[in-house]
Amino acid sequence: MQSLWMLFAAFAFSLMGVGVKLAADFYTTGEIVFYRSLIGVTIMWVLLRSQGVSVRTPHMVTHIKRSLFGVTALLLWFTSITMLPLATAMTLNYMSPIWIALILGAGAALAGTPGAADKKLIGAILLSFGGVLCLLQPSVGHNQLTGGMIGLISGVFTALAYVEVRQLGQLGEPEGRIVFYFSAVGLVCGLVWMLYSGVSPHTWRGAGLLLVIGILATLGQTSMTRAYKRGNTLLTANLQYAGIVFSSLWGILVWNDKLNWVSWLGMVLIIASGIATTLTRARDTDRHPTPATPVKSAEAEVHPEV
Fold first, then answer.
1. Fewer CB within 10 Å: C terminus or N terminus of the chain?
2. How many domains does the chain have?
């Protein structure tokens, strides 16, 4: 099942988060975004060239929309982290699957084709988000409403970016090209931010962390793009909650974070929801197999892996 690529993406992003937290002692946010994007652009350029795939695309407008949505979500999320407790900022950003469910549900309702299976998946997403609330136990004070709104909007832009990824996949765009343009836009935005906030001196440790962050980000973006392009959108959105579990485990191992029973309950809810939705989608696929569709172009057959 192609949606399971999201589990690997969540794992890669969680490791990347560890790297970002460590690299924050050496670099500003803008610098981390810039170098992460620079490494991503370089890797995807080399990979696309080796596969004989051009970066030119007939769907440039959709690529730009996806990239701007994604980079905006990233910048808003970083901003909300500076204004809110980390748990609160993460929870608000992880509302993106619920926004995806609402966006797709509204589209299905307008088309007159709502599905029972999708209703089950929406319920599972809500269950997963309940697990996130238990695990992170966020709170927003009366003096944090601005940061809360920024975090909430970051989740909306994340959802819009994922929906655009799905559309690019339906248009036959290779995963590598999608990731390339996202990294390119992130490179420009990170450069502007970096030039505004200043440039930090490099150390071997700092440079090593930036390299690891860039590689993990590219792995995560490629896997996430493949999951949204080929898999079920709502199932993929639900599986991204695994990133919260991975991040919590890294917090225990690296920073000796302590989790209470409510947090462990949240982890159980997230894992149970992911397993249930995976099995449900597998049964639906077995009962109603999707007929093969012709590939729109030779480039659509290229599925780069990092």
1. N
2. 1
